[in-house]
Design goal:
Helices cover 54% and strands 4% of the residues. The protein is mainly alpha-helical and 342 residues long. It folds into four domains: 46 residues, no CATH class; 111 residues, no CATH class; 69 residues, no CATH class; 59 residues. The strands form two sheets. It has a two-stranded antiparallel ribbon with strand order 1-2. A two-stranded antiparallel sheet has the order 3-4.
Length: 342
């Protein structure tokens, strides 16, 4: 049909819609922007061909692809992995194959592709060198098959191995104390945390936690601490380690981190005592009030021991008041000592 046919405008608009949908979000979308208002599909297609599909463009693509195959090298000392480098060689081959459909291009065969790849590897990593030697000797498969060489060389990449090693995270608690020594004693070798024969966790214990352990677990933890180069004075599990002093010399520790942890532990202990005293005051006060306001209870049963009779289950009101006063005095003393230290 001629361009003056009545159906040309409709068809031209449909062609533009198909082109716009195909290049939407691509870098070449800006090329067809001038033809959006008139929906000129023919003009948009010619612009795309002239700017992105001409022979000059194919020549530039061939030049870039050949530069990758012949000049790009990989040493394994940068963040570029071997897989990424070989992926660039694969992309360059695909580009040459596509350009060969438009202009005359010498597309390398499989053996040439492997040769380009081996020549581009300038690394000194022994694993990669050994794999390259194996590829050169395998004339049946890997030396004449790029994909087989890719699969064989990829696991030997040292960059990937280093990245995996750095990214490995251990959630095991390997704390040996606050004196800066690595777990495992004077030798510096870390030991994996485990459990002893008594069921105690062979790790750092705060003094309050250590004090609540059974006797057999305390003994086993003491032996474990000695075997790992720590004495009883260490805060991580000795009987006498209340913080602030080392087990060997007994002199105060000048480490600011340890001092800060010791201060925090003392504050937590004082706060716990204060809460316990407040609870005692409240409990004894309520019990005293209930004892004075309660109706007369039935006579308690007695137990006769010799000539004396002991009353079971009833606490006199004066005793409850006395307990409340003692708890109140205890709480007052704690608050006063806290104010003085502050």
């Amino acid at each position: 049909m001629t361009h003056i046919h009545p159906l040309y405008k409709v068809d031209n608009g449909l062609v533009y819609d198909m082109i716009e949908s195909a290049v939407r979000g691509h870098d070449v979308a800006a090329t067809i922007a001038p033809f959006r208002r008139t929906r000129d599909g023919r003009g948009a297609l010619l612009a795309l061909k002239s700017q992105h599909a001409g022979k000059a463009i194919y020549d530039q693509l061939v030049k870039e692809a050949e530069s990758v195959l012949k000049n790009r090298q990989w040493s394994g000392t940068t963040s570029i992995t071997l897989q990424q480098h070989m992926g660039l060689h694969r992309k360059a081959f695909i580009t040459l194959s596509e350009c060969a459909e438009q202009i005359p291009v010498d597309v390398p065969n499989e053996r040439a592709r492997v040769t380009y790849l081996l020549d581009s590897l300038t690394t000194t990593d022994p694993n990669v060198l050994a794999a390259m030697a194996a590829v050169r000797q395998d004339e049946v498969d890997k030396r004449v098959n790029f994909e087989s060489s890719f699969t064989f060389l990829a696991p030997t990449c040292p960059v990937t191995a280093k990245a995996a090693k750095k990214g490995r995270v251990s959630f095991d608690a390997n704390v040996s104390g606050t004196n800066g020594k690595p777990q495992g004693g004077l030798g510096g070798d870390r030991e994996k945390p485990g459990k002893g024969a008594s069921g105690v966790a062979l790790r750092y214990h705060k003094f309050a936690e250590f004090k609540n352990l059974p006797k057999d677990q305390q003994d086993e933890l003491d032996e474990w601490n000695k075997a790992n180069g720590r004495g009883k004075g260490d805060k991580g599990g000795g009987k006498g380690g209340k913080g602030g002093k080392r087990g060997s010399g007994g002199s105060p520790c000048n480490d600011p981190t340890k001092k800060l942890k010791s201060m925090i532990s003392e504050m937590e202990a004082r706060q716990t005592k204060m809460y316990e005293a407040m609870a005692d005051v409240q409990t004894t006060s309520i019990a005293a009030i209930q004892a004075t306001t309660a109706s007369p209870a039935p006579s308690p049963r007695g137990v006769t021991v010799g000539a004396a009779t002991a009353t079971i289950g009833v606490t006199p009101p004066e005793v409850m008041f006395e307990r409340a006063n003692v708890a109140m005095l205890k709480l007052t003393g704690i608050l006063k000592s806290k104010e003085k230290k502050a």
